[in-house]
Specification:
The two termini are about 20 Å apart. This protein has about 55 residues and is mainly α. The protein contains three helices and no strands. Helix 1 crosses helix 3.
């Protein structure tokens, strides 16, 4: 399953995976935690896993 196909921004995906920004300049300027978007992605993932399990 490609999560990007479901409308999630790659930056949000990277935050959820706790990947660190490689560009130090971008890391300095983007201190946003994007909690609402991350919560939406995690809820989608939970729903997806439930569907795969057959719940």
């Amino acid at each position: 399953e490609n999560i990007k196909n479901h409308g999630f921004n790659s930056d949000v995906i990277e935050l959820c995976l706790d990947h660190k920004e490689r560009s130090s300049v971008k890391a300095i300027y983007d201190r946003s935690q994007r909690l609402d978007e991350r919560a939406r992605l995690m809820q989608w993932w939970s729903d997806y896993l439930d569907e795969v399990k057959g719940e």
